[in-house]
Amino acid sequence: MSAVLNAASLTPGPIAPGEIITVFGTGVQSAPIGLQIGADGKLATTLNSTQLLIDGAAAPLLYVSPNQLNAIVPFEAATSGKANVQVVSYGQPAAAWDVPLAPAAPSIFTIPAAGVGQGAVLNQDNSINGPANPAAPGTLIQIFATGDGTSSPPGITGSITKGAGNTPLLSVTVSIGGIGAPVAYAGAAPGEVAGLLQVNASIPLNAPAGPAVPIVITIGDAMSPPGVTIAVR
Questions:
Q1: Across-strand partners of 70?
Q2: Model pTM?
Q3: Rounded CA gap, 87 and 25, in Å?
Q4: Which pLDDT tens digit goes with each residue over 58-76?
Q5: Cβ atoms of 213 and 178 closer than 8 Å
Q6: Phi and psi (nearest 5°) for 199?
Q7: How far is 62 from 218, CA to CA, in rounded Å?
Q8: Helix and strand element counts for the chain (H, E)
């Protein structure tokens, strides 16, 4: 392994329970392969004979290739100390890394998946937010992120969420253009993998207008990295 990153922001840092992460490195003996769902309805923890172990527990895998894998930190992971992270490919373990753990490590997904720029956000009518399709002040947007940590009820590792719920235990706030945005919902993204966070927030009436207005999510004491934007009319 050469890096363990938040999959949304592509930045290093502590990992949190349920966080979607990206691991870069070399030596994985696998052709590219995407997520698979088993008979139990959960994501596979082995793809092309490759696993990612976090403190000995096999993490659900979203994607595996020779140089990259995407996985979800098990919800059973601790929220402090360090986790031992190790890739095992065809029975051959790579060198393990110690990665710090945290209660939350929020980051907002972007379009494209560069970690900065236009956020993965839907407008109130479920259309994709962007410079050509800005959100109006007072309307609700859906923000997609990861790294919210433990929830109530607890997330089920490797599952596909069937509906709304799994509210983060830590407080969730949103800032748009430096102005607090009322949060209507924070929790699981229905129909998506457990670990994908959906936050519904209202565009403040006094939010600045423009094609690239900064947006930040704060969960507990952890703030999403800067550089993510949305378009506001």
A1: 22, 63
A2: 0.96
A3: 9
A4: 999 999 998 899 999 999 9
A5: no
A6: -125, 120
A7: 25
A8: 0, 23
Query: For the segment 2-13, what is each residue's pLDDT rounded down to a tens digit?
Result: 799 999 999 999
**Region of residue 7 (phi > 0: left; psi between -120 and 50: alpha; otherwise: beta):** alpha
Give Cβ neighbours of residue 106 (< 8 Å, ≥ 6 apart): 145, 146, 147, 148, 197, 217, 218, 219, 222, 223, 224
What is the distance between the terminal CA atoms of the chain, rounded to a whole angstrom?
Answer: 43
CB atoms within 10 A of CB 58: 17
The CA-atom distances, in angstroms, between 66 and each of 47, 49, 57, 134 are: 12, 12, 21, 38
Query: In the numeric block, which tokens belong to residue 81?
Result: 């100390």
CA distance 76 to 16: 10
Bridge partners of 133?
130
User: What is the CB neighbour count within 10 angstroms for residue 217?
Assistant: 27
Upstream peptide bond of 17 is cis (omega within 30 degrees of 0):
no
